[in-house]
Amino acid sequence: MGDLADLCRLLGDLFRRTGRVEAALDAYRTGLGHRTAPGTTTLGPAPAQPPL
User: Fold this and answer.
1) Measured between alpha carbons, how far is 26 from 45 in angstroms, rounded to an integer?
2) Strand residues in 1-52 grouped as ranges (E)
3) What burial letters (b/e) apply to 38-47, b meaning 16+ CB within 10 Å?
4) Is 40 helix (H, G, I), strand (E, B) or coil?
């Protein structure tokens, strides 16, 4: 989880340096969660559902 936190911090810093303050605050506050669809992961597709 530390890698994701570092990535969000770096993204926020980049946005801030380029004058995109609102985008920087979003990156700092919510990370990348608002950019992904429900059920997806940063490592690939969501795990398969267990068989019934």
Assistant:
1) 24
2) none
3) eeeeeeeeee
4) coil
Interior CA angle at 3 toward 17 and 49, to 5°? 125
Structure tokens at 16: 């801030």
For 7-46, what is each residue's pLDDT tens digit?
Answer: 888 999 999 999 999 999 888 888 766 555 565 555 566 6
Which residues are registered as beta bridge partners of 41?
44
Cα 13 to the center of its chain, rounded Å: 14
Please give the C-alpha separations between residue 35 and each of 3, 20, 41, in angstroms, as whole numbers: 17, 16, 11
Q: Report the distance separating Cα 45 and Cα 27, nearest Å.
A: 22
